[in-house]
């Protein structure tokens, strides 16, 4: 039976880079990128948007129904895949909006269906996060130190809630002083300890 890991954290902390690295480090690992799933969903609805537009205009383009429908699809896929594969879900329920923040988290019932084995949350110092977002906006909104701190604290709070609900550990990896390869090494070490990459013979 495969392990299911939620990979989360504020935009700019390195989730997408880590997800891709894990895919190359663990043969057979299945992974889902929620941003891409939502972009494709909108495309099927006749709205052709880029990943950057999705980030920039999140609440204007993506409704709570879009997110919960994507959640249900992912839960069904995870249930099917976990029999033979490990799964990583790259998602963050919290988005930065013009009015502040919006969170569309998994429900308790959804978390029980997902049966997460671990939550891995990335974080970094606020000044580093601000600099990363400024270097590569990619549709991300400009951050102040207060907003950078708040979005990370709120996302980490959701991570802890998910872990408590699923009865699984949460690992918060500080990416402030680690490059992408070092973050991947740290995550691989953590995931191997919970059984990711093991195969039943």
Task: Give your account of this protein's structure.
This protein is an alpha/beta fold and 201 residues long. It has one domain (4-193): Rossmann fold (3-Layer(aba) Sandwich), CATH 3.40.50. It contains 9 helices and 7 strands. It has helices spanning 15-25, 34-44, 51-56, 58-61, 64-81, 108-114, 126-135, 145-166, 180-193; strands at 4-9, 30-33, 87-90, 94-97, 100-103, 118-123, 170-174. The strands form 2 sheets. A 5-stranded parallel β-sheet has the order 2-3-1-6-7, with helices on both faces. A hairpin with a 2-residue loop joins β4 and β5 (100-103). α1 (15-25) packs across α9 (180-193) and α7 crosses α8. The termini are close together.
Structure at a glance:
By secondary structure, this protein is of the alpha/beta class. Helices cover 51% and strands 16% of the residues. It has helices at 15-25, 34-44, 51-56, 58-61, 64-81, 108-114, 126-135, 145-166, 180-193; strands at residues 4-9, 30-33, 87-90, 94-97, 100-103, 118-123, 170-174.
Q: What integer value in Å does the Rg equal?
A: 16 Å
- The name of the CATH topology is Rossmann fold
Strand order of the largest sheet: 2-3-1-6-7
CATH homology superfamily:
P-loop containing nucleotide triphosphate hydrolases
The tally of helices reads 9
Query: What number of domains?
Result: 1
Query: Number of DSSP strands?
Result: 7
Largest sheet: 5 strands, parallel
Show the helix and strand layout.
Blueprint lengths: L3 E6 L5 H11 L4 E4 H11 L6 H6 L1 H4 L2 H18 L5 E4 L3 E4 L2 E4 L4 H7 L3 E6 L2 H10 L9 H22 L3 E5 L5 H14 L8
Parallel strand pairs: 1-3, 1-6, 2-3, 6-7
Antiparallel strand pairs: 4-5
């Amino acid at each position: 039976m495969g392990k299911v890991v939620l990979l989360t954290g504020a935009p700019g902390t390195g989730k997408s880079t880590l997800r891709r690295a894990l895919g190359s480090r663990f043969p057979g690992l299945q992974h889902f990128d929620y941003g891409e799933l939502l972009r494709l969903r909108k495309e099927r609805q006749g709205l052709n948007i880029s990943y950057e537009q999705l980030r920039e205009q999140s609440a204007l383009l993506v409704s709570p129904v879009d997110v919960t429908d994507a959640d249900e699809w992912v839960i069904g896929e995870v249930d099917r895949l976990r029999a033979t594969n490990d799964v990583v879900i790259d998602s963050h329920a919290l988005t930065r909006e013009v009015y502040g923040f919006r969170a569309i988290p998994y429900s308790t019932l959804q978390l029980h269906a997902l049966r997460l084995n671990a939550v891995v949350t990335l974080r970094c110092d606020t000044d580093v996060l601000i600099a990363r977002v400024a270097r590569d906006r990619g549709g991300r909104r400009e951050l102040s130190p207060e907003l950078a701190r708040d979005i990370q604290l709120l996302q980490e709070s959701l991570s802890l809630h998910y872990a408590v609900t699923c009865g699984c550990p949460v690992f918060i990896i500080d990416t402030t002083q680690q490059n992408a390869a070092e973050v991947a090494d740290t995550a691989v070490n953590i995931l191997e300890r919970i059984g990711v990459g093991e195969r039943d013979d």
